[in-house]
Specification:
- The chain is mostly beta strands.
- It folds into 2 domains: 36-42 and 54-87 and 115-334, Beta Barrel (Thrombin, subunit H); 340-433, PDZ domain (Pdz3 Domain, Roll).
- Helix content is 10%, strand content 32%.
- The protein contains 6 helices and 24 strands.
- It has a 6-stranded antiparallel beta barrel with strand order 11-12-13-16-15-14. A 6-stranded antiparallel barrel has the order 4-5-6-9-8-7. Strands 18, 19, 20, 21, 22 and 23 form a 6-stranded antiparallel sheet that branches.
- The radius of gyration is 24 Å and the shape is globular.
- 46% of the residues are buried.
Length: 436
């Protein structure tokens, strides 16, 4: 927040012509490996040790693709950066007052510059003070790399959720340390569970108790334009002193493919925001105007292949996805995807979609696009179909599609039941491989 300073009645200098700025081009759309993942709010299969609460607002129409990414201290610019790697004063009021002698009277007022406010008059410093005690800075070493990222404390005894790409270097023998906000002591942590498919992981800070925990909101009720604040260890500048940025929800339902020179991943149903997100923010909270976590900062659009730069385009994994994965991660499970590829881009059915397009089902995964030449295209899946069952697995959300396909390998034969208008069709599908 900058201080406000008034100006004396001296004529201003002539304005300097602005330097031309090259506008950024939109990223080219990419396909989803086996369908977008857009889970509905979780049913809480077990009583969670974390806190959740619901907020107001409705979902919006489906939107599409882009990418996610991560960086480390050795990595240069990439088109979409996986964010794991690396990272009141005096306000003067000046007024002129005419007098017989033409004197200029300068009045100064001592005081703070005033807190930045979100819509509704809520104070950002108040929200930050509330949330930062539950945010940790992470340092990860292994496989010849050192990465920095962020985590959110979900239980008082030290369980922390973060991005899988943040801790990837520690898999197989590396080390993880966590530094609580407001401290400088790096504490050892243990890797508990990983889900590379959804880019979510769980670690535990060793030997701690009575920690502050985040409170989850309801990402399914976000609308474009909602105010948000991003918190995280941006650029790894100083562990324990997270960076805070402000913005809005720019779009919902984004699918992005992100990567470095050696790895890539496709994530779906992401929240797009213009709150500044930088390498090191990965795993940190995206909070709403009530200080509740509605997403996990994961990726940012950087330099495009043609050399142009994007502006203020970042992505976060919705809270609903994170909460749905925590019970499995707490069991110490490592999720494996065998690479089977259906070839559709999908969105979870919502009341908006049902009303807008006249669907006969209130649940299921709506096919937004069928990728040409893929298993789905060959089997006759069409745009506008609603997937409701895969090999006996009921499909309520796009997360169900991902879960149903994850256990199959390319070449497996399955059936997919879809609703097409008033018809219910069962299609035989031979699964393919995800494009490289």
């Amino acid at each position: 927040m900058s201080d406000e300073v008034g100006a004396s009645p001296i004529p201003p200098e002539p304005p300097v012509a602005p330097t031309p700025i090259v506008s950024s081009a939109p990223l080219e759309p990419t396909s989803t490996p086996h369908g977008a993942v857009a889970p509905a709010p979780p049913e809480h299969p077990l009583t969670p040790p974390w806190t959740s609460s619901n907020d107001a607002s409705d979902n919006v129409a489906p939107q599409r693709r882009l990418r996610s990414a991560g960086t480390n201290q050795r990595l240069g610019a990439v088109f979409l950066l996986l964010l794991a790697a690396i990272v009141g004063g005096l306000a003067g009021h000046f007024s002129s007052q005419g007098s017989g002698g033409g004197k200029v009277v300068i009045q100064t007022v001592n005081g703070g510059s005033g807190a930045a406010l979100l819509s509704g008059g809520l104070s950002i410093p108040t929200l930050v003070t509330k949330v930062t005690p539950s945010v940790v800075s992470l340092d990860v070493t292994g496989q010849g790399e050192e990465d920095q990222g962020t985590g959110m404390i979900v239980t008082s005894n030290g369980y922390v959720v973060t991005n899988n790409h943040v801790i990837a270097a520690a898999v197989g023998g590396g080390t993880i340390t966590a530094t609580l906000s407001g401290t400088t002591k790096a504490m050892p942590a243990t890797l508990i569970g990983t889900n590379p498919t959804e880019d979510v992981a769980l670690i535990k800070i060793n030997g701690v108790k009575n920690l502050h925990t985040v409170t989850f909101g309801d990402s399914s009720k976000l609308v474009v334009g909602d105010a948000v604040v991003a918190i995280g260890n941006a650029l790894g500048l100083a562990a324990g002193t997270p960076t805070v940025t402000q913005g809005i929800v720019s779009a919902l339902g984004r699918t992005v493919t992100a990567g470095t020179s050696t790895t890539s991943e496709t994530l779906s149903n992401l929240i797009q925001t213009d709150a500044a997100i930088n390498p090191g923010n990965s795993g940190g909270p995206l909070i709403n105007a009530e200080g509740r976590v509605i997403g996990m900062n994961t990726a940012v659009a950087g330099t495009l292949p043609d050399g142009e730069s994007s502006q203020n385009i970042g992505f976060a994994i919705p809270e609903a996805t994170i909460e749905s994965l925590l019970p499995t991660l707490l069991k110490g499970t490592a999720t494996v995807n065998h690479g089977a590829y259906l070839g559709v881009e999908i969105e979870t059915m919502t009341p908006f979609l049902q009303q807008e397009y006249g669907f006969n089902s209130s649940t299921g995964a709506v096919v937004i696009q069928v990728v040409s030449g893929t298993a789905a295209a060959n089997a006759g899946v069409q745009q506008g179909d609603v997937i409701v069952n895969i090999n006996g697995n009921k499909i309520n959300t796009t997360q169900d599609v991902t879960n149903a396909l994850a256990k199959y390998r390319p070449g497996a034969q399955i059936y997919v039941k879809v609703l097409r208008g008033n018809q219910t069709l069962t299609l035989n599908v031979t699964l393919g491989s995800a494009p490289s």
